[in-house]
Amino acid sequence: MTARIIDFLNTRRPEGPCLVVDLEVVRENYLNFAHALPDTRIFYAVKANPAPEVLKLLASLGSSFDCASVAEIDMALAAGASPDRISYGNTIKKERDIAAAFERGIRLYSVDCEVEVEKVARAAPGARVFCRILCDGAGAEWPLSRKFGCEPEMAVGVLEHAHRLGLRAYGVSFHVGSQQGNVEAWDGALASAAEIFRTLAERGIQLSMVNLGGGFPTRYLKDIPGVESYGSAIDGALKRHFGNRIPETIIEPGRGMVGNAGIIKSEVVLISKKSEQDQVRWVYLDIGKFGGLAETMDESIRYPIRTIHDGDDRAPCILAGPTCDSADVLYEKTPYELPVTLSIGDEVLIEGTGAYTTTYSAVAFNGFQPLASYVI
């Protein structure tokens, strides 16, 4: 929570739930990444928060951009990024979208199977491709599924196929899971990447780049290692597995870049119990899963919550959103401790919400408007 955000909320008094993002925090985060990983290019994951002000700031600082769609590519270009600073990082792309990206000058694409390689070869001839591999997401609070990536052994064939079709087999990528708390999580994936490099080199194909992905955390309820710890661990793993032939590296921070830069202001709509004997209150906010807090699914991300009564006695609460959908319950398996004096109409501040909130609030479900956003 920053003094600038508190001053904005006290001065502007915006109506309804809203996200407020402090650009000074984003700037500090970018500079910390650049310092911790000085030989690595930063490709900000646009999907985390595509606010134009955020993208323009990062572009001015020298950031590159990881984009998941043509629309995100256009956002990055509009923010001032040149095409050579943009990666089309989604492994699932329509061929016509690849062609549209190619027309815009994009020459770097992610793949994870031979069929996707063939689409890129037809729509973006001569482009560079990197193959995403599966890896263990142990230690992540928001583990990624097997939806993206292939087994490392398969990646060799995928990149060979790209080479045969006239594409540049450029490198390997992976993602160790979002909100990764283990600084050593990159080690195993880098070992797999190094083996792919060696195998392809024996076959006359020289790879150049390892995309280290995202996974860098922001602080929620638990303390997290500093970005310097991640940089040091990654540097050690690179030297361990690649020796003196360190490849070009890039990272794709999203949550770690903007998560702690934002706070959501919410309001208590209702406090109730389900029976006279209930010891746990239900606290309903004017924002829920469908209003931007989708990452509370399975209670994976547990946000810090602040109220004006924080010095008072606390009791466990089940926290839920306002919509007419039974899935719109934020925290029930592990109730939240909130002040017993909390009342209907009280404002609640939800910290660490700068990433993956406005982007998950894209449709006015039940008529509740998408999450308003202010960037200061």
What does the secondary structure layout of this molecule look like, with pairings?
Layout: H1 3-12, E1 18-21, H2 23-36, E2 40-45, H3 52-61, E3 64-67, H4 70-78, E4 86-88, H5 95-103, E5 108-111, H6 114-123, E6 128-132, E7 140-142, H7 152-164, E8 168-173, E9 178-180, H8 186-202, E10 209-211, H9 227-242, E11 248-251, H10 255-258, E12 262-272, E13 281-285, E14 305-307, E15 314-320, E16 329-339, E17 347-351, E18 372-375
Helix pairs in contact: 2-3, 2-9, 5-6, 6-7, 7-8, 8-9
Count, helices: 10
Task: State the fourth-level CATH superfamily of the largest domain.
Answer: Alanine racemase
Beta-strand content estimate: 15-25%
Elements, N to C (H/E):
HEHEHEHEHEHEEHEEHEHEHEEEEEEE
CATH topology label of the largest domain: TIM Barrel
How many runs of DSSP E, i.e. beta strands? 18
